Amino acid sequence: MTEKPSLGPATPARPLLRIEKMSHDFGGVRAVRNLTLSIADTEIAALIGPNGAGKTTVFNVVTHLFPPTTGEIYLRLPEGQEALALRHPARSLLEFSLRLPEGQEARITGWRPDQICEAGIARTFQNIRLFRDMTVLENVKLGLHRHTRSGLFSALIRLPSMRREEGEADVAAWKYLSFVGLSSRAHELAGSLAYGEQRRLEIARALATQPRLLLLDEPAAGMNPRETADLMALIQDIRSRGVTVFLIEHHMKLVMQISDRVFVLDHGELIAQGAPDSIQEDPKVIEAYLGG
Amino acid sequence: MSRRNRRVEWFTLAAVCLAVALVPLFYGFRGQVPSTVLKICIYAVMALGLHVVVGLTGLLDLGYVTFMATGAVLTVVSMVAVADPETGTLIIPVGGRSLRGAEHLFHFPGSYLLVLALAGLVCSALGVLRGLPTLHLTGDYYAIVTLGMAEIMYIWYRTAEWTGGPQSLWLNPPDVPTLFGYKLYYDSAIYYFLVLMVFTATIIGSIHLRDSRVGRALSAIRLDPTAAMACGVPVSRYKLTAFAVSGFIGGIGGSLFALWSNGFSAIGMEVWESILLVCCLVLGGIGSVRGALLGSVVLVALGEILRQKVPHYSSGVGLVWKAWPPEARFLFYGLILVALMRFRPAGVLPDRVAGDPFPPELARAWSERATSLFRLGPSRKEASR
Ligand SMILES: Nc1ncnc2c1ncn2[C@@H]1O[C@H](COP(=O)(O)OP(=O)(O)OP(=O)(O)O)[C@@H](O)[C@H]1O
Ligand SMILES: [Mg+2]
After folding, report:
1. Which of A281, B26, B53, B62 lies in the 20 to 30 Å Cα band around A137?
2. By CB neighbour count within 10 A (0-12 exposed, 13-18 middle, 19+ buried), where does B180 fall?
3. Which residues surround ligand 2, an ion (CB under 5 A)?
4. Do A120 and B378 touch (CB under 8 A)?
């Protein structure tokens, strides 16, 4: 940020997510180049750019589907939350419980995806990745995985505590479904839902992990105008409940209407960031989109 | 399209167990029928163990016979092991010879239950050990590695001295373990009901596992490991859990099989047994508990039927009665699978295609209870900041 102050407003004072000089290579292809950006608490931030700019790669690296080639990612830990026991970032199978200082930034580079999820980052995928052969409700219950406890032995003999937990998980999952408007489809197979419904189900599943940062990869893709309008309201509702939203979107109307800040990526490089109005007039952005 | 109805499912499975329990009323404990029923039950136990990895977790394991062999060899070796009367050292009498005056080392009240548990635990550990280097493999690569590892174990058991090598290790009557004061002969009532109990417990456990948080996580790994990770499922740990459970059941099945076959022979533990178990799952429908049972019934029973003598035409002599060569059953298994792929690619009894029906009064009850449990995003404290 400090290197390129001309790009936009100052870095938020206490960012929730901070990406520092992150690059990612696929063999010889440098998909993301030296990216530095910060997302503030409870804002809606958008990441835009032409096809193949490297937007999805940024999400994949943040959620550690693959680690960055270089660079670091930091996440600010919740303040005042009682004893958040994060797992040791070591990629080993032994997981030491480790209490990290509250309200401080944790370096999450190198964590496993499930640890990133536990730390409070949830996501959806550009090419919807639901568990298609499971019911809608079960999909959301998977989102609740980290918030339920019962293990192998209580499962095998079906202890009362496990049954109670299952019942509570059903109710909680159902509530997330009502939130995205899918509760009436709870017992259908996820794969049988319409496209727009699948996207909303993915959001419900991600919300069930109770994230502080929600990454949405092209949530409006394939939606009709009415569904898109509903989606915009949904995203704003999510933010109003204290979840920070970082989304990738090609639908410019959606981006410009709901986001607080926009980042523009082109050929893996951040070429602009700022409020939606200023971005629309930025000559570099116009060139990136028109010059292809 | 069929829905999975829990009540119907429990009813069917209870009926199966009851049927097994009633067989001795008509046929006794000795003879072809009870022996085949026992073999079916033991194979069904192992098929359900394999189902944890193949059906739930979605990894094709072609080396499951390793657990069967390990469970069997541990059982037989510990039961025949004697102390040398002069030196007091441990001896495994290979080749059916028995030592006069030697004391069995592992014969004490309840020792078989201990051996059974041990067979399970050792195979569980073996499953984890085998799983550790293969955690990142999927699909064909995983299948090939399991196949290779099973072959290594097979060659070891076939050549090692303590397993009897290419010879069989027989359980002579004094070697047969005792349970509650009764000898566990392969045609004894106590053995029959022991197998029935393990069989029932495995079925119940399989259904419970499938309908639990752990089973859901395993299914998620099968359906989309990336999405499972993103939902917070520690994929490696759950895969290891699946390997451990699967190995445990395999070891138990192997131990019971050793009693059924009254000994251990490495030659009988070839890769074909793995393939047969996979076929049981495929025939019934991968991922389905009822399917695994059906597959075991059909394929094991067919194998036994093919052992019977049938009329063969022999030139010059005319019709003679003789059995098919043992390999012939694989011809039939192959034919069945080809027919299956053509007419019912998902198996005969595939797992449900939709969830349980959803009564509206449940929805109302849930929405009332939900308010107290529902939390969206960060804790209230943080959100209100
Ligand atoms: N798994 C991968 N292996 C190799 N190259 C990849 C992989 N994923 C992406 N790429 C390459 O990295 C570059 C950036 O891809 P990315 O998917 O991040 O773009 P994007 O901005 O999300 O595009 P779109 O708008 O089309 O979704 C592209 O050139 C792409 O071909
Ligand atoms: Mg993309």
Report:
1. B53
2. exposed
3. A 56, 126
4. yes
Query: What pLDDT digit, counting tens, does each position of B115-156 carry?
Result: 999 999 999 999 999 999 988 887 788 899 999 999 999 999
Best mutation target, A134, A175, A212, to test chain B (most B CBs within 10 A): A175
CATH label of the domain that carries residue B125: 1.10.3470
Whether A179 and chain B come into contact, CB under 8 Å, resolves to yes
| N-to-C CA span, chain A | 26
Residue-wise pLDDT for B336-366, tens only, equals 888 887 887 777 777 765 455 555 566 666 6
d(CA A55, ligand 1 centre) in Å:
8
Find out whether the beta carbon of A219 lies less than 6 Å from any atom of ligand 1.
no
How far apart (Å, rounded) are the C-alpha atoms in residues A137 and B355? 9
In angstroms, the CA B50 to CA B241 distance is 13
B1 has a chain A CB within 8 A of its CB: no
C-beta of A52 in contact with ligand 1 (< 6 A): yes
Range of the domain at B216: 3-360
Residue B293 lies in a domain: yes
With a CB cutoff of 8 Å and minimum separation 6, the contacts of B96 are B168, B170, B172
Q: Which of A61, A142, A216 best tests the B interface by mutation, with the highest count of B CBs <10 A? A: A142
Assess A207–B contact: CB distance below 8 Å, yes or no.
yes
Looking at residue B156, the DSSP 8-state letter turns out to be H
Q: Is residue B367 part of a domain?
A: no
Domain presence at residue B368: no
Distance B301 CA to ligand 1 centre (A): 53
Question: What ipTM was assigned to the predicted interfaces of this complex?
Answer: 0.88
Q: Tokens 């400090």 belong to which residue?
A: A2
Terminal C-alpha separation, chain B:
51
Inside any domain, residue B211: yes
Nearest-angstrom CA–CA distance, A266 and A68: 18
Ligand 1 test: best mutation among A55, A127, A271, most atoms within 8 Å of CB?
A55
Q: What is the pLDDT along chain A (292 residues), one digit of tens a residue?
A: 333 333 444 456 678 999 999 999 998 889 999 999 999 988 999 999 999 999 999 999 999 998 899 999 998 876 544 334 344 443 333 344 444 555 667 788 888 899 889 888 999 999 999 999 899 999 999 999 988 888 899 889 888 888 888 888 888 898 899 999 998 888 888 999 999 999 999 999 999 999 999 999 999 998 999 999 999 999 999 999 889 999 999 998 899 999 999 999 999 999 999 999 898 888 888 888 776 5
CA B80 to CA B104: how far, in whole Å?
7
Strand partners, A261: A45
pTM of structure: 0.88
Residues contacting residue B194 through CB under 8 Å, at least 6 positions apart: B179, B184, B256
What's the pLDDT at B363?
64
Residue B150 near residue B156, CB atoms below 8 Å: no
Question: How many domains is chain B built from?
Answer: 1
B362 alpha carbon – ligand 1 mean position (Å): 44
